[in-house]
Amino acid sequence: MVFIDPDIGSTFSLFEESGFFNWEENLMYKSLIRATTAVSAAALLATSAWASDLVVTYDDLNPAPKKAFETVIEAFKKANPDINVTTNITDREAHKSAIRNALLNDAPDVITWYPGNRMGPFVDAGLFMDISDLWGSDPNLSDKFNAIKATMTRDGKQWGVPYSFYQWGVYYRKDIFDKLSLSEPKTWADMLGACDKMTAAGVTPFTIGTKYLWTAAGVFDYLNLRTNGYEVHNDLTAGKIKYTDPRIRATFAKWGELLERCAPIKNHATMSWQDAIAPFAKGDAAMYVMGNFSVAAYKDAGLKDEQIDFFQFPEITPGLARAEEAPADAFFIPAKAKNVENAKKFMAFIATPKIQGDWNKAIGQLPPNSAAEVNKDDKFIVEGMQTLSTASGLAQFYDRDAPAAMAKAGMEGFQKFMLDPSTLEEVLTNLDKVQAEVY
Amino acid sequence: MTASGQPISQYDTSMPRVVSGAVLLVVALLVMLSIDVSWVAETFGFQKRVDARVPTFFIRMVFLIAVLAGAFISFTSLSYYKRNRVMLAPWLFLSIGLAFFLIYVIIPIFQSISYSFTKWNGLYDVTGTWTGEWVGFYNYRLLLEDPNFYTSLANNLLWLILFMLAIPIGLGIALFLNQTVTGIRIYKSMFFFPFVISQVVVGLIFSWAYNPEFGLLSEIWGWFFCEQKLNIVGNLTTSCSIDPPSILGEAKYATYGIIAAGLWPQIAYCMILYLTGLNNVSPDQVEAGRLDGAKGWKMLRHVILPQLRPATFIAIVVTVIGALRSFDMIATMTQGGPFGSTNVLAYYMFDQAVGEGVGRYGYGSSIATVLFFIMLIYISYFLWRMYQDEKTEH
What we know:
The complex is a heterodimer of chains A (about 450) and B (about 400). Chain A is of the alpha/beta class. Chain A is built from 21 helices and 13 strands.
């Protein structure tokens, strides 16, 4: 079936975007011209292939990411002038529910979503297209994405192309550390010692806002990765290890220590992660376990580059291979995409080092392509690149690695434990119950 | 006169009208079914099929109306209709409303009940096949073991009981405001004001007021227990000998905090109901009561309140409904947290089925079913009471 391009084919434009209000004008004048051109265009239409459309759905309306995305689209258009690109940019939260419908009816050709277990339901329902062939043949994807390939893989196949990721770790107030002559803690004992000093000086060691739960999962993940390592993290989120397992208990024991000696701010249960920046900016709290996207928010809160710094979450079990949290954002091709060839072209395009480098410079994150250039002027990016490129494994995040139903119950349990560590038994047995049922 | 020479009775079927109505019906139905999104996109020159969806919908609607008009013309031309007009006409008018009620209320209820016997993540696969599986009473067995379900149920009960406070408080304010003083209208409208604000806004206002960092409550608390100090980097900070309560952050207070917020507009609502009721209190009876020496509490209990019975009845009904509609308050104030302790059934259902991609549609539906039956008991009792009242009145 041939679709007629609206610019030449429309003979009646009542429902066109601008047509409703000045439809008279459209009808009277334009339709005449259009009708005549339509006839001549019809001849053209019959011969030329009109497959050169590409519809891309992106899910971030924040000014910086939106602009960066639009720049990439412009670059793609320039590189492929024969492809007619249409973009839909939606709100991130709305996208989470809208995607269910979008993948079934009127699927775009390329759509953003999260890798790890979050893509699981869509992959299992056959709604995403298997692009393993692209990963095999494309020079960038086959060679420069080894660190993140596992994340994009399910059932031994690859389903999407990541365009950005970022590191997690501990952000701290360097000026407070200097005042108390503390240095970046490397081990668990260092960390607890530093906390004691801070508490003695009237500084709350950690800030955190657990109202939306996921921040607590960041702390849990790091404690678990440092106590038990990458394999246990994966086995736990894959449902192979119980929450009452002695290894997970060990993680919670460390968390108990952390809550006792490195107490987080009170009232964290009523705060969002942005609210929790206030005590950090004021100097009431000195450390924050967070992702790199938070740096911009610290600066907005009035902190200067030299007042804040970053260190990797300290070692707990000595000699354990260091794994890090590095959530990625990716593009996928819906199984119902109409312009698959163009979609694959787009995927290959966003995997190139140039695009990956420029894009992530613009949004202050890290390019998954190891050959891409990073912003050397940003100390957090430099340190993040160093952290992630030397890591033995990259975890997505508790709520992306675990199925959503498990993640929700798990994070509620973490919050409950943080508010009252004596509920540990109750929390763990309940999580076992949810786990038995979800997987 | 017909061809056979007999006079046309006003109750005879007029065949030409029946046929023309039927033709209109069939043609419009065929057109409606044959129009699809790609056809509209092609005809009107939309670049994307997505853009053609809304126009398609409206074009189909136009033809649907033509179908209904055709059916209407045919049906009203039948002799059967003409003879039973008085009995059939109301149903004809009701039919459209009933059809919508069936499509949007009745059928979904049964669909939802049927989903509650399945395990489903809300997705259809690429061929449009439903991806769930039938699990029988599994979800209900899970519910019985789910501590969150019992928390939600208990909270629902707490809401129902505490929300009833709105009735006596509303009555009290109404009695207080039921006097003729200059500017009483202004006071009345100020008391009524919270009912006009959206629930979401009420929720926001209260969650700010409760906020232990910068809220109104912690500010007042600070006068007694807190002092301003300089912290390590020289910024002013507050330190308290006793920390201000974190109402929404602690499981044992949070639900009460939300109920208090919900009561604020509900009291206003009950107040306005009683104020209108008080307008209708007969002055003769009050006078008579006064002559018999009744005043104060006795007057209220034996003369005023019996006359306010209709207002009380409505106040109870709207308060029960208000308590069951606590969803918006919870969604804005705590999202069911901390750790699920402020969930009610309605919010827990939403959270499990569609919230944050959890996608347990089957489980969510089973919660919805339980909620439905609880409501059904209440509504049946309510309808039965109304029916009894009407019987005794006539």
